[in-house]
Design a protein that fits this description.
By secondary structure, the chain is an alpha/beta fold. The protein contains 6 helices and 6 strands, in the order E-H-E-H-E-E-E-E-H-H-H-H. Strand 2, helix 2 and strand 3 form a beta-alpha-beta unit. Helix 1 packs antiparallel against helix 4. The radius of gyration is 16 Å and the shape is globular.
Length: about 210
């Protein structure tokens, strides 16, 4: 229960929390925004995943495989409660962010330009995917993702680590993928990755 106390330190949060990734949303941005929204829901928060534009074919494949709707596009964050995933730079993010209430940054990149007037939850780790960071936070909170959420997290990790073959792949990414693929009911991860990769090469409209 101690791990659940960090949200309490932010005080009373009124209104919806919007979870958003970077511009030109890729699979990790889409997957981690959906996954972190699930985590916030499990913690009793009103949260919604949002995106900053059209998604690519690989991300579309994720949503179709998980039977999930595409998140809505957020055009202006001014006055909104915001969680940033997979980025921490103003230039990569939504308009109006300087006038938003940023409550969390969850990332796997270097420290960015976003600054806050108040306290926030900041969790940036040198891992292969932001979805792996979200997986760790789920474990720390004692929350197990459902099948749909596990699937989008799994695909996000596969995408950012190129099926665990990229140089930035870590032990945590491998353990996350192992557990999430079990939760998602995917027995042949390599075959799933091949299908996912082929879908990313499609020229069909999004």
């Amino acid at each position: 229960m101690l791990n659940r106390g960090d949200l309490d330190g932010l005080g009373q949060i009124t209104g919806t929390i919007y979870v958003i990734g970077h511009k030109s949303p890729d699979s990790d941005t889409v997957g981690s925004s959906i996954a972190y929204t699930y985590l916030l829901h499990e913690l009793g928060c009103d949260a919604q995943p949002v995106i900053l534009g059209n998604i690519n074919n690989e991300s579309k494949y994720i949503l179709n495989a998980a039977d999930l709707e595409r998140p809505e596009v957020l055009k202006d964050a001014a006055g909104c409660n915001m969680v940033l995933v997979d980025h921490g730079e103003y230039m990569q993010s939504v308009e109006g962010l300087q006038d938003a209430n940023i409550i969390s940054i969850i990332d796997h990149h270097a420290d960015g330009s976003v600054m806050t007037a108040g306290q926030l939850i900041y969790d940036a780790r040198p891992l292969g995917a932001t979805s792996t960071v979200v997986w760790i936070r789920c474990r720390n909170y004692g929350i197990t993702p459902d099948r749909q959420t596990a699937l989008v997290m799994m695909v996000a990790i596969l995408s950012d680590t190129k099926n665990l073959q990229s140089e930035n792949t870590t032990y945590a990414d491998r353990e996350a993928l192992r557990e999430l693929s079990d939760l998602a009911g995917i027995e042949d991860v390599d075959a799933f990755y091949r299908d996912m990769y082929e879908s990313s090469l499609s020229y069909e409209g999004i």
